[in-house]
Amino acid sequence: MREQRIRKTKTVCTFCGVGCSFDVWTKGRDILKVEPSIDAPVNGISTCVKGKFGWDFVNSRERLTKPLIRRGDSFYEASWDEALDLIASKFRKVRDEFGPDALGFISSSKVTNEENYLMQKLARAVIGTNNIDNCSRYCQSPATDGLLRTVGLAGDSGTIDDIARAGLVIIVGANPAEAHPVLATRVKRAHKLHGQQLIVVDLRRHEMADRADLFVRPNPGTDHVWLSAITRYIIDEGWHDEAFIRNRVDGFEAYVESLRDYTLQYAEQVTGIPVPTLIRMAEMIRDADGVAILWAMGVTQQRGGSETSAAISDLLLVTGNYGRPGAGAFPLRGHNNVQGACDFGTLPNWLPGYQLVSDAAARKRLGAVWGVELPERPGMDNQAMLDAIVRGELRAMYLMGEEMAWVDANANHVHAALSQLEFFVVQDIFLSKTAQFADVVLPASPSLEKEGTFTNTERRVQRLYQVLPPLGDARPDWQIIMDLANRLGADWAYAHPSDIMAEASSIAPLFAGIQYDRLEGYASQIWPVAEDGTSTPLLYKDRFAHPNARAKLARANWIVPDTPDAVYDLHLNNGRLLEHFHEGNMTNQSAGLTHKVPDTFVEISPELASERNIEDGALVRLISPHGQVEVRVMVTDRVYGKEIYLPMNTVSEQSAVNLLTGPAVDLRTHTPAYKETYVRLEVL
Ligand code: SF4
Asked: Which residues line ligand 1 (CB under 6 A)?
């Protein structure tokens, strides 16, 4: 028997948007250790518990290793040829009978940039539809919308170094100590050692709230109001940056007019934040040498998520906190490659590099490279696709690496829609809940089994190298997509993901200089990347990304959230835990993590526990108008009053949070309003 060598291979973490990179030591398929490197551009010698111990899932016995084809209520193992031939013939039949828009494509923020690029190319150039979306629809689309409207690009305006060097960090509706731990460590260090000020605004007293100079707990769904009131107060007091606004920002008068009702007194009445606290927040912004605002799902997953994201950007514009080091807008990307999935075009209205589908010149340019005429009509997002399935208009779907059945809101509706599909293909590493609705399941490779690039929350592109060979007959997603495209008439011959990146960077000016030979080892590039390879860590130094180079203030527009009623009287907040990644499909297969947190639970406040006589560990039923779950209670002062918190990871179908969430969506982007959910509680 040949002796197995010990190997050390560099990869990029797949568990969050911070984008830590490190070496993985292996012997055969055994992962011996994860070793951070001083050369890693984001994390250096740090990782969090997921990056260090979260990799057992790659060798899980639950991994898919063969293509599966449905036969009645079960699946049989098939060859790749049989599975791909079947998919190609079904897709061709649906397209020929009902047109290309009868097919939908769901891409993934867990797979590489190159794989996202190929998925959208398959949809647009091979099938002929813009019906392509990714899971940023569930999280960061509202932040993208708010930034595109105000400053013109959809990405963090600076790097994690800029967050660390800001005079004041404001964290709104985000829990980076659990969801972006290494980034949180940078803030903790700056706060403790370098005098950085920290404001945390959240419903839940999490670790960063405990460390903050000022922790503010507003009423649910009212962030827009305190943001607008503080901005108005800053303008009224003359603390705004007049020269910055005059020289670089449009729409000031109309914006000020839109702030007319947002007095501090009105804000106190709506948000519950006392006027003196609002004034203190404004003073801290005035006195700071650079303000960085970090936000995540607590802001975006509301019906007014886009408007609140725009209000954050407005505040930064009015105070001149763009285009200089240690300041700016930092929507925290959740999945490791949310940024890249969007950048490389898996969105229904955007081609790679944020070129609009509606831009005829862009379509013509890309179409010339791809050798086809591109579809003109913007496609459906994933919410619209589900509705179209129910109406019988969308008949076939190809979904890659997304646990839509548990991660989308209103799970019972999602399950009903998926079961109506005429033909459904799921490509994943496990037989997920979503895959159980499929007609064909294709076994894919996780990040450790392939090459490619990921783009982290600061727009940084990094290479990952193949640590392990694919398990069984599993294959990297890019190879599967290429094989399918060629069976549908394409003639793709990419030998390596570097060939795909070379094509993508040739058609997207934003990525012009991204090349694999510039990304060797721990090297990285931050887009926009000029042809000569120069990165742009700090955006908007000289110009904003609108055609006239100026930013544009968005008018204040608070979307009034849902409120409790006599029956559904508890506000349900939801999100991640440090030890688990989203619904838990990967981390539940990692013993190093599950022994720390084996299942989910619901956090309730000491006040609620006492009022209803509920003991720590009690089994309760939570009921919303859309479904119910059963889960055990953790009594904790992290939550207050009638606020409860249910993490989104679960090992049981009885405790999945999205059985409770409903159909409400952000009005501009259709991101589900997960955070506008009210429930009632029964003790079992
Ligand atoms: Fe991975 Fe994020 Fe943890 Fe870094 S902070 S090791 S990217 S999960």
From this structure: 13, 15-16, 18-20, 43, 47-48, 50-51, 180-182
